[in-house]
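Extended Data, panel c. Modelled sequence:
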Amino acid sequence: SSGINAEYGVLFTHQQTNIQMVTGKGKATRSKTGDETKVTISEKAGLTLPVARIMKLVRKNRVSGRVGKGSMVFLTGALEYIAGEMLEVSSMKAQENKRNTISN
């Protein structure tokens, strides 16, 4: 088995592992083969908006003491649905008025 410590990184390892860098924050991820890719919560749920970002905003604004992944997926899905409906209605109104852009 292998051990990871947040302060010191990888402490010990018994298996052959590849350490890959994830773009953005510079965090290293371990995988047994180099071909595995991370699947985000949004991809699993089939959503376009990022669930992790919504979760981060909810935690940052201290909406609740505890936040579950399932509730964040539901909240993100609801926000995506509302945004989609608003865009659909506004695009229909823009077409009615023979406009190419959506504005006031």
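Residues 7-15 have pLDDT under 50 and may be disordered. This feature is highlighted in the accompanying rendering.
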